[in-house]
Amino acid sequence: MDFNGTIAIVTGGASGIGKALAEGLHKRGARVAVCDLDGAGAETVAQACGGIGRRVDVSDEGQVANFLNTVEREMGPVDVYFSNAGVGYSDGPLWQAASAPNAIWEKQWAINVMGSVYAARHVIPGMAKRGKGVFLITASAAGVLNQIGDAAYSATKAAALSLAESIAITHGDEGISAHVLCPQYVKSNMTALLPEAMKQMDGIIEADEAAEITLSAIEAGQFLILTHKATGEHYARKSGDRDRWLSGMRKMRRFLLEANHGRPI
């Protein structure tokens, strides 16, 4: 994949990995449109990346479609779509699975999964007609492994990974290059809320490094993109003996509760 001369969209692009992805794409010659709930931040990043920025709630299909139409009208057909916007919450003071209120489950589903469904529904037909396109979903290492303390996040990110696989299977023969990014700990507003003990386990990297790993992997045609080697190692152990892995995760949960003095994230 050569990004030079392409028109790209990055959702959740006002900060963190999204901002770094937009900047990385622009350095490779793309013009990048950016959307985010932080509309002013999206405009600032987009202006530096040769595109337009808007406030968009990706859980609203109409807003997603309208932004795509605006970009294609003002910039040209979209070649690259990075469905990066996401959200996560703690499940509660004892980190009980599924204890989060319905509203939190529904919000995470709407953003972490349906935001990508809406984007794919509206951008992939044009890509397929032109016989080329890149569609990336930012899921999480939680979608490959699990996230202690947020069952809704883990479940929706696993669904996001599955959706990316479905896009690859369904549209790969139409020239669509589908990818899923499963970062572990990357410096962002979200990871700033995690206990230090959790962040120190496999290390935390800068957003720019995560973006470079991602873009290089897409250029190489790699579907599953991991920011940490440890993620793949953990997954191999999980696949090899799930009962042992679950026992280890329970042990880790006890350690984190003790390290955090029983307080919620």
Can you describe what's shown?
52% of the residues lie in helices and 13% in strands. The longest helix has 29 residues, at 102-130. Strands 3-2-1-4-5-6-7 form a 7-stranded parallel β-sheet, with helices on both faces. Helix 3 runs parallel beside helix 4, helix 4 packs parallel to helix 6 and helix 9 crosses helix 10 (242-259). By secondary structure, it is of the alpha/beta class.
Question: What is the structure about, briefly put?
Answer:
Helices cover 52% and strands 13% of the residues.
Distance from N terminus to C terminus (CA atoms, Å) equals: 39 Å
Total beta strand runs: 7
Topology order in helix (H) and strand (E) letters = EHEHEHEHEHHEHHEHH
**Largest sheet strand order:** 3-2-1-4-5-6-7
Shape: globular
Discrete helix count? 10
How much of the polypeptide forms β-strand, as a percent range? 5-15%
Major sheet description: 7 strands, parallel
**Share in helix:** 40-55%
Decide which structural class fits the backbone: alpha/beta
Mean pLDDT: 91
Radius of gyration: 18 Å
- Uncertain spans, ≥5 residues at pLDDT below 50? none
